[in-house]
Amino acid sequence: MSTALRAIVVASLLSGACTGEQVSSMNALTEPIRVESGQFLSGALPGVSPPPADADVEPDAGASLNPQVEDINVANTAIQQGEEGLTFSGHASTDATTVAVRFAELGTGYWVVPVSGPDPTDKGLLTYQFKADFGIGLPPGFHELLFAAIDANGFSGSQSPLTVCIDTPVPDNLNICVPKRAPPGAVLSLSWNTPVDLDLIVQDPSGAMVGGNSSTSAQGVDGGAPISAPPSPSNGVLDRNSNANCVIDDIDREDIVWQATPQAGTYNVWVDLFSACHQAAVSFTVSLWLAEGQSDGTQRLVQQPPLATGVLTAAQANGGADHGLFVGGFKIQ
User: What would the pLDDT profile of 165-180 be if each residue is shown by its tens digit?
Assistant: First the structure.
């Protein structure tokens, strides 16, 4: 069969025998993609590499080599850092026994899963399905996942590419994946390394507070919830209360987002250890991201030098009695 790859994304963007050397499960856990119930092998992906994206080749020109992955289904090709359980499925040629996958330019090896029975609705092609988890530190932007089918003799034909986009660790309105979509004017981000209830608190130039017990710096709020109209884009809004009351969500990050350019003036910042959640201490980093113009006329969030780093101990947990540790401030011109 010489059918060219049919890459199918079921929602809009905006996700036998084989060669290679098996490595320890501990090493596999550091890979940028981790396939649940898959076997990890070190080295390059088997098969014939696809032509470069900018190559002057017609989409259906030439015959692909079997065995091959015929199509790739995924709910979303915009992937969050640390995303878990993203399902991939599709079809492979009838001579395949396994399907392998890896990032083209990231990681040290590839994952292998067995194929399943034929699909009577699609020429008897064999089916495959797996769930994948993605690393926390993946570089934001566009990357290529490569898929390969392998037969019982360890031979692989043409590799099949799927372009995915890794989102930024802070909310950017998916600007990194869709550059024409404007990013927020500013994002202040708190991240930490231990499952504790840590809060980011900011006082804006008007004296309004956001973070802690207030989800927005908009005036006229009651318990952090807007009373009437939504806040102005120039007001900061807290995106989440991570690990609230020690209900651990494994996000360990809070962001205050200004959709428009924040009002000019000085912003004061605190980090409050609401509860240590039975942990001895926590290390944290506070960073500011600002929308900056690019050479192509678009805007992109750009991380500024870290505003603060530090450590809080369990003895400093205060249950929200005050703002916590003052870590500094920043100015918007």
Answer: 999 999 999 999 999 9
